[in-house]
Amino acid sequence: MPPAVKKTSVSEDPQVYENLHVHEVYEKIAVHFSATRYKPWPIIAQFLSGLPEGWIGLDSGTGNGKYLPLPENNSVLVGLDRSFNLLKIARHAGSNNAVREVVRGDVLDSPWRPGIFDYAISIATIHHLATTQRRKLAVQRLLQAVSDSHGRILIYVWAIEQDELSKREIPVEDSTVSEKTTMGQDVFVPWNLNRQSTRSDNETQIFNRYYHMFAKGELIALVVEAARELGLHIGPRGRDQEIKQGVDIVQDGWERSNYYIELRRWKA
Amino acid sequence: MVRLITHNLLACHAKGCTSNNFPLAFSNVQIEIREAEFNPEFLKNFIPKVEWNALVDTARQLGDTSLPLEQPEMLDEEFLKSLHHVLLEIHVEEGVMTCPNCKHEYPISNGIPNMLLAEHEIG
Ligand SMILES: [Zn+2]
């Protein structure tokens, strides 16, 4: 039975808050965390296997790099993460002999030539950012990292609406999960780390990781606002000659306790 | 791993550094050569994205002079093999990458380049 999720609220500087409740936690639990993360979700696997040969992708918030081996035969996926300990694992994701491309950096930065990637994925990452402003900036970084003429993007975030199989108890009132709301819920998800102590008994250390659980409709609203601020038209390329560039929402939905959205950039 | 395929994508992102911020120059490097599977189709598709001068200069910094200064029009097997080696088989394990414009230094350790900036360096 997974430990219960508790409500929280972000009261400090968001960068300081994320350092304490996201980055430091992953640095400490990296090895243990990685051992539990190996199954790719179907929609992500499908997205990665359908890419043209020679494409270069960015996995923004790669964690232990579990997606890095997937497009092996047809494209290269570069993993970006803040956690050095997770990146050391990600380097060899899939096999100890394998070498993966990984870069240490922040998902809110842009240490790349603009628009150089053909595609980008952001899986279970944006929900660790502590304000709407920062989550929107992370989406804008993805939009800027990919080609303005053909760049494809896939984003996954944790949903308030949980899978029955996950058995997690989510402390939200019924009113907050109504269709109308687009406000998510800030929570702590505990991670129990068993470590061999110097004495004979085991000690369990509990690390609380911060998550913003997304409400229904919140991800798509975030993406639309992020794209509009960059001057991008939302929707497929139409006949209107005035509209020079845009982003099409290819699909969006819910899969296994997560909301996802797939995007494609275009230029007239 | 920093291979030149990844290095060719990186640019300095320190505060105010927006032009001439690429390619980052290697120094004090430790290199390992690891064989990779030759995939000419992948290379042909990747070529349009390569910043050619940056790639050639960087390969020369690392002691590899197999690439021509001008990107050839004919993609013969010999050329593709050289390109394959430069992009995918040279691994920089340790070292420093320096921005040609603002001279900001990005260290590489355990094959992982660190592009994080301190709070006051973020643009
Ligand atoms: Zn610079």
Automatic annotation (TrEMBL), chain A:
The keyword Methyltransferase applies. One of its GO terms (biological process) is tRNA methylation. Keywords: Methyltransferase, Transferase. The keyword Methyltransferase applies. GO terms for cellular component: cytoplasm; nucleus. One of its GO terms (molecular function) is tRNA (5-carboxymethyluridine(34)-5-O)-methyltransferase activity. InterPro entries: AlkB_tRNA_MeTrf/Diox, Methyltransf_11, SAM-dependent_MTases_sf. Residues 58-138 form the Methyltransferase type domain. PANTHER family: ALKYLATED DNA REPAIR PROTEIN ALKB HOMOLOG 8. This is S-adenosyl-L-methionine-dependent methyltransferase. It comes from Dendrothele bispora (strain CBS 962.96). The lineage of its organism: Eukaryota, Fungi, Dikarya, Basidiomycota, Agaricomycotina.
TrEMBL record, chain B:
InterPro entries: Trm112, Trm112-like. GO terms for biological process: rRNA (guanine-N7)-methylation; tRNA methylation. GO terms for molecular function: protein heterodimerization activity. It comes from the Eukaryota. Interacts with TRM9. Belongs to the TRM112 family. PANTHER family: MULTIFUNCTIONAL METHYLTRANSFERASE SUBUNIT TRM112-LIKE PROTEIN (PTHR12773:SF0), UPF0315 PROTEIN-RELATED (PTHR12773). This is Trm112p-domain-containing protein. It comes from Dendrothele bispora (strain CBS 962.96). The lineage of its organism: Eukaryota, Fungi, Dikarya, Basidiomycota, Agaricomycotina.
